[in-house]
Amino acid sequence: MIDLRRLHVLRAVDHYGTVTAAARALHFTPSAASQQIRQLARELGVVLLEPQGRGVRLTPAARGLLAHADAIEARWEQAEHELRGGDDQPAGLLRLSGFAVAISNLLAPLAATLSARHPRLTVRIQEAEVPESFNLLFEGEVDLAIVEATPENPSRGDERFDQQPLMDDPFDLVVADKHPFAARDRVQLAECVTEDWVVPLPTCPCWPHVVAACSAAGFTPNVVHRAEEWNATAHLVAHGLGVALVPRLALIPPHLPVTRVACAGTPHRKLLTCTRNGARQRPAVAAALEELRANALTAVA
């Protein structure tokens, strides 16, 4: 019989990319993690890891084994719900994660609503950027995450996760109140060709959206300032230091002298709900997803 603990170490190596990173996430030493995989390989009579440069890579046998392991994890999620007696009332602990904007607009109201409707349910929220949310789901530390769709995410076909569209979050052009565009109901992005720009850092998931939108409008933005937080971006714009594309869900301090202007040709970022595969039927998760879908309809109206 396969040792499921050792199988989980192999899954962690696949998820984190190296034995060292997997060991760190599982609170093992690298040597202990390697030993677990060697023992699993001996039990199965196959090679699971092979050298690649200074590191290792999974063999085809390991890849085949992981396909079954992901299916086992999904079935376990289903079995856990059934073994609890089929109680359809949300109860127990529900752990949520998301990036800051998702918490402010979606998860905080969700937690308040669920706590009021379901007294037996305890909701916990953890702020996490997109890669960390996937790690938390994989490690079993959270049950439901709101993530932004990015090219670096696991593929939508990844058997470990169930990723479903939640909403599109459009970008608005943000300008200082004294800017000529502030009096307009709508502008074309191509009209911003001569503007100075405040843009996200290249590490921000929104950076590719801004670059792609400007490129599609026929220009490269004249970047004069970069900021990680939307609050910092808004302050730079308020002082007349540039214009910016900001997602509609992003909160801007109401006292700042800036105006959001609808901008034709700007992109939408896609937000997803993500669970471990097989977890969506759990009553607490199902209740949270239903409420999120309802709130998403009005969140960017």
UniProtKB/TrEMBL annotation:
One Pfam family from the record: LysR_substrate
Protein's UniProt keywords contain DNA-binding: yes
Task: Please give one Gene Ontology molecular function term for this protein.
Answer: DNA binding
Which keywords are on file for this protein?
A: DNA-binding, Transcription, Transcription regulation
Residues in HTH lysR-type domain copies: 2-59
An example GO CC term for this entry is: protein-DNA complex
* Protein family membership: Belongs to the LysR transcriptional regulatory family.
- Do you know which PANTHER family this protein is assigned to? LYSR SUBSTRATE-BINDING (PTHR30346:SF29), TRANSCRIPTIONAL DUAL REGULATOR HCAR-RELATED (PTHR30346)
State the protein's name.
LysR family transcriptional regulator
Supply the source organism's classification. Answer: Bacteria, Bacillati, Actinomycetota, Actinomycetes, Kitasatosporales
